[in-house]
Amino acid sequence: MTKKTELARKLIRAVSLRYPVPSKPAQGLDLISQGAVLILMRHLTERQALQSVEALRSAYEDWNEVRVSQIQEIASHLRSGSRKTGAERLRSLAPAARALKTYLQDVFQQTHGLDLEFLREDIPAGGKVIAELSSLGLTGGSFLLYLAGGETVPVHTILVRILDRLGLMTRTTSVRKATEAIAPLVPKGEELPFTLCFHEIADRWNDPEEPIYMTVEALREIPAGKKAYTDRLAQIEREEARRAREAERQRKAEEREAERLRREEERERKRREAEQLKRERAAARKRKALEREKAKQRKLREAEAKKKAEAKKKAAAEKRAAAAKKKELAKKKALAKKKAEAKKKAAKKKAAAKKKPAAKKKPASKKKPAAKKKPASKKAPARKAAKKRVSKKSPAAKKKTAKKPAAKKPAAKKKAAKKIARKPAAKKKPVRRR
User: What is the mean pLDDT of the chain?
Assistant: First the structure.
């Protein structure tokens, strides 16, 4: 056994497949149906996948009808060991149905049909086709090529390239030479594991998240794997350094942004405080102006009330004075009327006394005869003159009483009383006319 053969055996044992494959090819299925089994085995068991493919082939006329069907409709024909029913069961089988529909759509777009039987005619050309079927991957595609080639190792460009990278053979463009170089590397009876192993390595060698040589230690013992591993570690370190720098840059940017926000908030706070202070001062000025206006209005109201009170007091005093004056005038008129009536009554009495005949008296001894009295007709003018004098004097008394203030009214009363008392002087006898 050569060193290269031993390395091939070691890698077959060390490499694990991402997705399961059938333990043996299913009988009676074409290549596209075998691919459908591979896809469904990523979600179901091998037996369930086979049963689901048979159910779909029975329910639909061809795979094209399956491709254009709804996810829920495809899921209803899948088989599983779940006891879920109804909508819950369809939801649980939806991922498998979606993967199957994606696979059929991928085949249709790359081959413009839904038939992979042409792979049996040209294995090297089929290698280019399976490289484009991203839903299957190189590992799943190599399984179909293995079946298309009559269960032999499919020799094509991708397999030659990965074996050359691992140092197991020299790259060549001749299919015959490549087949002759690969034949000694394949352990007897392990054609399928060999095919799957190296196609898995080729499929995951440049995986962006986790290349296969990062997890398979046997690959790191090979110069190409060791170099790729070292480069990957350096790349990881650079990436980590870049992420650290980016994180530091982001941190500084966040700090600057936080500082900017803090300064902006501080400016905003000061602006709000200034505006608040301005509003408070304006409110204080307005309040003081309002208080001054209220005080002014209060003083005006007080002055108005005082003025009204004084006017009311003055009006009341004037009213009292007018009432007192009116009362005094009424009193004076009553007194004058009373005196006039008394005078008139006395005059009438005197006139009546004069009209009576004189009683004959006994002659007195040596007494002078009584003086002759003038007839009553001659005394009338004298009484009229006296009345005129009284009427002339009374207005003067009234004028003096009106001119004096209310406080000095008693003095006016005295004067009026004196003048009234002097009126009997009008009873003097008039001068005789000759």
Answer: 83
